[in-house]
Amino acid sequence: MNSQKVYYAVIFLSGLMCPSRGDAVGDMNSIQSEFWDWWMSENPTFAAYFGINKYNDRMETYNVSNFDVRRVSFYL
Q: pTM here?
């Protein structure tokens, strides 16, 4: 029984000694917000469909050179 208490004490104390990695929920919300803003800026028609008028001054272009620029910037 005494060894069981020591075991639980070690487990509890090792959990306290682990460093905190930060606010995971806050980090995820930040990433989601950045992605949403990027996606809306790249697709202003999609943004207008959802009532986001921030990107109404932009037009989508569908030429090959624009797709190449997007592809390169997306993977870098």
A: 0.53
